[in-house]
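tokens incoming
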């Protein structure tokens, strides 16, 4: 049986412009340049430049036009004329409602403008330069002295694979052995190890390259690859990696003891059971100490050394720059990778040409409709960039005020407990917005570059009744561990008692969690001779 029901629902949906703003907000500055280039390629109505360029071009057109320029002193005048029939030419077209993006600034009034359909197309919105200003804000970007300054970048050289293939070309190998060498080099992971079985590599060559090779042949070529630089490359485990590096050192007594430790007591070495090693190998205290010191100088990950790393070097480009001018903190937004944007003035000329030409030309009307869509897209993108900058500045400014004591001298013990809700409440935004800002952004200070997530931490109760930042507790925990006796490191229980004595009410499991977050091993693995 069919029924007819009526429901009343209330739902919220994000407009395409709001989705665009959210995506722009969460990307860092280093990715913003690529996003802007992508938009410039997709939208011909959007171009790089500022208002000064528009003024220069307008002046050139005025000089060429001569006396006719009097008719265009007011760019909106020709469209305010009641005899203008431009709106009537679009009676057969419709466009969906497109809301404007609201700017998040509390001090600026926001207005929700009604979107215009093609029936009420007002070309003055697209001819008025003041309404299509570039997104660059005052104080953004480099100063006049920094315009020509280039950021120094390290020479990354070639990749590890390319370096090894070059060395393979100089090895005295036949065609089959060289093919095996290329297969082995391609099997090296990011740490510089070959973790696959040699039999599996031989099978891959048989199926993919139709080359029959035994495990012994593959292993023979492997020894050749292991002789390449860097030392320890293409090892199958950590023990082999360290031994390969020791083989290239002068074969003195210390090297001999180190090789014996790795060959005969590797398990005890990984667990730092030094008394057992000394007893089994019959070594004196000085001999054991020198051998262990030599092993600790070796590189456990040869694939990540020097300029021949596996991948591209990732550079951190700060989104904010914070300077201290005699106690006055100055915050600027790094807009070096974001060029000035504007709407192309050529599209304004196209509207003028349409108003002067044949109004009933269907092809020209379609062109003007296309231009209107591109202009709307350009304006929305510029507004989204401006809104992104406003949101970033407001969020970071609130963080700077909240953690002012830290930014003045860089003392981690002065970091205050701060969560996303604290900043969201102060700037009047949602927690998710603050989370997007803090997730992938960083700030350059006089004490280094910090990710914004670094300044958010939970509170730990103290005997004084005030909450201390977990960053402060971690900093003190790190100082205690650095000052401990290396031959008798402190256990988590002792660390807990020492922190409690300083007034921090913290449990042992919390001490263990903070220690792991600081990448500090347990007491047994911190023991040194």
């Amino acid at each position: 049986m069919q029924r007819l029901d009526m429901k009343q629902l209330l739902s919220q949906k994000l407009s395409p412009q709001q989705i665009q703003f959210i995506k722009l907000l969460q990307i860092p500055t280093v990715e913003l340049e690529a996003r802007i280039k992508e938009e410039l390629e997709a939208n011909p109505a959007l171009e790089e430049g500022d208002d000064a360029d528009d003024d220069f071009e307008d002046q050139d057109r005025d000089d060429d036009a001569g006396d006719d320029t009097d008719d265009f002193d007011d760019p909106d005048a020709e469209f305010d004329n009641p005899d203008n029939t431009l709106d009537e030419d679009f009676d057969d077209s419709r466009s969906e409602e497109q809301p404007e993006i609201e700017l998040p600034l509390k001090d600026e009034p926001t207005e929700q403008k009604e979107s215009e359909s093609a029936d009420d197309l007002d070309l003055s919105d697209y001819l008025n330069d003041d309404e299509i200003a570039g997104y660059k804000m005052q104080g953004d970007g480099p100063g006049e002295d920094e315009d020509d300054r280039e950021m120094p970048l390290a020479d990354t050289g070639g990749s590890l694979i390319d370096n090894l293939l070059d060395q393979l070309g100089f090895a005295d190998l036949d065609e089959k052995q060289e093919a095996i060498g290329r297969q082995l080099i391609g099997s090296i992971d990011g740490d510089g190890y070959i973790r696959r079985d040699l039999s599996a590599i031989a099978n891959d060559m048989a199926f993919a390259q139709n080359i029959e090779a035994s495990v012994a042949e593959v292993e023979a070529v492997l020894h050749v690859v292991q002789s390449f630089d860097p030392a320890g490359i293409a090892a199958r485990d950590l023990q082999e990696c360290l031994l390969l590096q020791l083989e290239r050192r002068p074969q003195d007594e210390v090297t001999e003891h180190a090789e014996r430790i790795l060959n005969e007591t590797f398990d005890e070495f990984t667990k730092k059971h030094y008394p057992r090693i000394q007893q089994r190998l019959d070594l004196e205290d000085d001999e054991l100490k020198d051998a262990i010191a030599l092993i600790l100088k070796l590189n456990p990950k040869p694939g990540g050394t020097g300029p021949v790393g596996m991948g591209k070097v990732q550079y951190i480009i700060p989104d904010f720059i914070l300077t201290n001018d005699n106690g006055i903190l100055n915050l600027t937004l790094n807009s070096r990778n974001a060029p000035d944007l504007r709407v192309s003035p050529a599209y304004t000329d196209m509207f003028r040409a349409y108003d002067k030409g044949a109004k009933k030309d269907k092809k020209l009307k379609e062109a003007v409709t296309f231009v209107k869509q591109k202009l709307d897209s350009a304006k929305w993108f510029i507004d989204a960039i401006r809104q992104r900058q406003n949101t970033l500045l407001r969020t970071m400014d609130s963080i700077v005020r909240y953690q002012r004591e830290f930014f003045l001298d860089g003392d981690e013990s002065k970091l205050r407990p701060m969560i996303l809700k604290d900043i969201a409440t102060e700037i009047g935004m949602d927690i998710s917005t603050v989370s997007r800002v803090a997730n992938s952004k960083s700030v350059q200070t006089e004490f280094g570059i910090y990710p914004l997530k670094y300044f958010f931490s939970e509170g730990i109760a103290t005997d004084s009744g005030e909450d201390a930042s977990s960053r402060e507790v971690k900093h003190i925990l790190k100082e205690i561990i650095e000052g401990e006796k290396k031959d008798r490191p402190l256990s988590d229980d002792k660390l807990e008692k020492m922190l409690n004595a300083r007034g921090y009410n913290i449990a042992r499991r919390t001490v263990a969690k903070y220690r792991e977050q600081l990448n500090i091993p347990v007491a047994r693995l911190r023991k040194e001779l």
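note: Residues 61-121, 129-157, 306-311 have pLDDT under 50 and may be disordered.
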